[in-house]
Sequence to fold (312 residues):
Amino acid sequence: MKLTVIGHLCLDVIHRPGEQESVRSYGGIFFAVAALANLLPENTSIAPVIGVGRNEYQAFFERLSNYPNVDTSAIYRFSEPTNEVHLYYHDERHRTECSRFIAEPIPFKRIKPHLDADMILINMVSGFDVTLETLDEIRMALRDRHTPVYFDVHSLSLGIAEDFTRVRRPLPDWRRWLFWLHAVQMNEEERAGLTDEEFADDMFAKHVTALNTASLIITRGANGCTVYSDVHKQVSRHEIPGIPKTRRVDATGCGDVFGAAYCAMYLSSRNALRSAEFANTVAASNATALGSTEIDQLAEFRLEPTRLEVPS
Fold:
């Protein structure tokens, strides 16, 4: 089994209210790769297509060496610095993000050799991870294989101000981005800022599933998530509640972990709802640690090899 992961690496610097010391850790697509490495057995191949700045290249490879199921052959080096993202939390759920040195979009020539996968996870960590044209090339390459593509909207609707803070702005061509995918993930803030039109969530889900995208997942932090699915041209809605009594420490990376956990479970179950329920549980666990410093605790949710046999 092979799962290809596409997105930008970040170096996260987390600033929490009332605390003078910041926490530095790998962020962005590292959350997804590390989560998958902990959730999937060693006989599964995880192929991250990632660019890394020259100053971080060796250290990043050493960090990934802890994971025998991660295939590093698609990781490439570029001369610019790796993007450093400062996250200034105002409270548990709201933050200001400041990004510098955002990498160039990942070119299709880097991605194409790794489309021989059982599932593709694309996470728009910076919002510039792939271009719309590259996404179209991915869709066309997979058209006859029926390979599921999971798409995390993440920062797609974030622009960059002059002081490098990220600012929400509507995406005029959102329909082209959300077309012909297995599932699309976004949180409530991303959902609200994505379109000029003021859709209620149910109506927005109808528009998304009408684009030949099977499922829309709106994550709601401690309140769980909502899964909309197209069932015989009818949109079903299922609420997955939050995990009670979770000791929340830091929400950084929870969305990335959610998407990774969904894909890990979907490889075996081929069931969107069961996959979202699993993702909800794993993401809640991730919220109990600062940044990615303790992400290997997710190994407690590791799936057994027998769970990963693709149904005939």
